[in-house]
Specification:
Oligomer: single chain
CATH superfamily of the largest domain: Nucleotidyltransferases  domain 2
CATH topology of the largest domain: Four Helix Bundle (Hemerythrin (Met), subunit A)
Mean pLDDT: 80
Largest sheet: none
Order of helices and strands: HHHHHHHHHH
Shape: elongated
Distance between the termini: 45 Å
Low-confidence stretches: none
Number of domains: 2
Radius of gyration: 19 Å
Helix content: 55-70%
């Protein structure tokens, strides 16, 4: 039997727990995203936390059976042993079919001059995700971040850096923002670099092509939405 969305999510969280235990990953580790191994650990921990949050968001869903609802309520981020037992029990609910809601952004917070462009990209992003075009999703996330950062720079400095330097990369743009005293939260900067790095690996030709998974793509999308929410 093909896994439904609910069972796939349960299996995904269980898989994350196995990786966390196998690699002795701390859920609260602070990371320098230039360290590949540390970035990988952070990605696994974040994926686990987001997967668990998606399950918990289903509490009281009309399609979630009473017993399954009770079990989901028992999930706790830091109690891995308990969660393994609970998730194993949830695997029995193969008939449950729930489409968890992905995070979205408040489009009204985005400046008017780029609102239409970002809205179109977000709609395209959703279509790509629903149809399994995950590399396209990552590319769109990078584009959305670029558009929003350029807008932020223009609003603070009054200078259209994209007009004068159309090929400017995200790393250079962030450095230019720092020069102009446009402060970004360090964690936000790391998220932007992570999105950009995944985008580069998805676009540029490498010895081995990178094909992001559904879970990896959803994590990048969530990071993207979080960056936009905090930029404006």
């Amino acid at each position: 039997m093909k896994d439904n969305n609910f069972i796939s999510l349960v299996r995904h969280v269980l898989s994350c727990i196995e990786k966390i235990e196998k690699n002795n990953i701390s859920l609260t580790e602070k990371v320098n995203f230039s360290d590949y191994k540390a970035t990988e650990r952070k990605y696994i921990a974040d994926n686990y936390i987001r997967g668990l949050s998606s399950l918990q968001s289903m509490i009281n869903s009309s399609s979630l059976p009473g017993r399954a609802n009770e079990l989901v309520r028992l999930l706790s981020v830091n109690d891995l042993d308990n969660n393994k037992k609970v998730l194993s029990e949830l695997l029995k609910f193969e008939s449950v079919e729930i489409h968890p809601q992905r995070a979205t952004i408040n489009i009204n917070k985005i400046p008017d001059e780029i609102k239409g462009e970002v809205k179109a990209d977000l709609e395209e992003l959703d279509k790509c995700f629903l149809n399994g075009c995950y590399r396209s999703c990552v590319i769109l996330c990078g584009r959305i971040i670029e558009v929003c950062l350029h807008s932020k720079y223009y609003h603070v400095t009054g200078f259209d850096i994209l007009d004068k330097n159309p090929g400017i990369g995200l790393g250079t743009l962030i450095a230019k923002m720092e020069e102009k005293n446009i402060k970004l939260d360090p964690g936000l900067t790391q998220q932007i670099h992570l999105i950009n790095n995944v985008r580069i690996f998805s676009v540029h030709k490498k010895q081995r092509a990178f094909y992001p998974s559904r879970q990896q793509t959803e994590a990048i999308m969530l990071y993207t939405f979080d960056v936009i929410e905090k930029l404006f």
